[in-house]
Each structure stands twice: as C-alpha cells, then as structure tokens.
Amino acid sequence: MPTAESQFTSIVAKAKGLATSVWGRAWCINLDRYSYYAGRLPQGRTLLRRGQVQSLNITPGLVLAQVDDERSHKVSIRLTPCEPERWAQLRERCSNGVDSLLDLLQGRLSPSVMALMTDSESGLFPEPSEIRCVCTCIDDADLCKHAAAALYGVGIMLDTRPELLFVLREVVAAELVKAGMTCTEVGDIEGQDLADIFGFEMISPVSDAPLS
Q1: pLDDT per residue over 162-190, tens digit each?
Q2: Of residues 82, 76, 208, 204, the one with CA closest to residue 151
Q3: Strand 72-79 vs strand 53-59: parallel, antiparallel, or unpaired?
Q4: Please, which residues bridge with residue 147 across strands?
C-alpha cells in the first residue's frame, strides 16, 4: 500500500481541474476573493491544471510543495494558526448545528453552519495576512504563481482528506461537534480512526524548517 504522502502527491499531480468537493471548492472560492493576488491566481490555476504541482504535503500550519515550471521550484507556505478567540466564537455559533464528525468532514452541513464556517471575516479560512509564502523562483511578489498553484493544490487535497483543513488551521474538528453531544458520543468520536473512515494512512508531521 502506498504511503499517504506518495498517494496524495499523485492525486495533486494528476489533477486536470480545480477542487470538486464541498470543502475543496470552499477553499478555492476563498482564494478567489484575494483581490490583492489577482495577478498570480490565474497563473497558479493554470499550473495546477497542467499537472505541474508535483508534490504537496500538509502539516499543522505548513504546506510544502514542489512545482515544476521551466525549472523545478520548492514552495513553503506558512499559515498563522486560527486565533483561539475566533475559533471559540466559531464553535459557539455552530453549537448544536453539527450532528457528527463524519457529517462535518463530508460537508453534510446546514446552509447556515456552512455559511459560518466559510465566512470571509469570522470563518475557518485564512486571510491573506495570515499566509506567508516562500518560493525558490526569482519572483519577489508576496505570492508567486508557484505558491498560488500550491494553494489551489490544497483544495485538491481537501477533496480526499477534508480533515487537513483543520490540521492546517491547527484546530480540532471534533470540538465543533462536542457542544451538542453527550460524553459517551464524544468518546466514541475521539476513539475513531479517521484512516478507517476514509481509507487513508495519516501523514506524519514533517520538520518545519524552511526550504532551502
């Protein structure tokens, strides 16, 4: 059985379009509203559709990718953790609105809860100011086309591994469910193996050292 990293590297590299799942599409829609990066985002989408994102790995607060253009470039994207106050408010607003962890990860949420989760100001997705990109290319912009491609590649990853959104934002998905559950039900969720539910092997955290 392939390791999680090689398995999902293959998925991103073979992508011929953008994300298709609820969480993947929501991630891309959030990127599209970054008007500050409007000049680079279309170029990033093109690179992704051409299969030029050759590898992509997500760990808490960090995306590492290799993007092949005329040359191969290494991309490191760091995200500021979701602020505790913001996360607490989001949990409170979603209280009793998420029936199960499985429903949450598969995007089976009411329109009102999904609106809260994807709200541009108070939801789970990052703001441009919370993202810092470093690439080995010569473009000195805050977001080069290679980093943009990697960010859209995150959406492809979320199609298959939606829990990675919560890993990337360094919050615990099950906390959104706990508010409306009994202690027994919470224990059942915490004891579940997501690999059994979704059929993948978990990626082990990698070093957070910057790419050379």
Answers
A1: 889 999 999 998 888 855 443 334 344 34
A2: 76
A3: unpaired
A4: none
The domain locations on the chain are 4-196
Do 31 and 40 contact (CB within 8 A), yes or no?
A: no
Strand order in the sheet with 131-135: 53-59, 62-68, 72-79, 131-135
CA distances from 5 to 11, 118, 179 (A): 10, 27, 33
Residue-wise pLDDT for 127-150, tens only, equals: 999 999 999 999 988 899 999 999
SS3 33: coil
Contacts of 212 (CB under 8 A, 6+ apart): 74
Name the stretches of the chain with pLDDT < 70. Answer: 1-16, 178-212
For residue 35, what are its two tokens? 């008007």
Per-residue pLDDT reduced to its tens digit, 155-168: 999 988 888 999 99
Distance (Å, whole) CA 183 – CA 116: 25
The residues, any chain, with a CB within 8 Å of residue 116's CB and separated by 6 or more, are: 90, 93, 94, 97, 122, 123
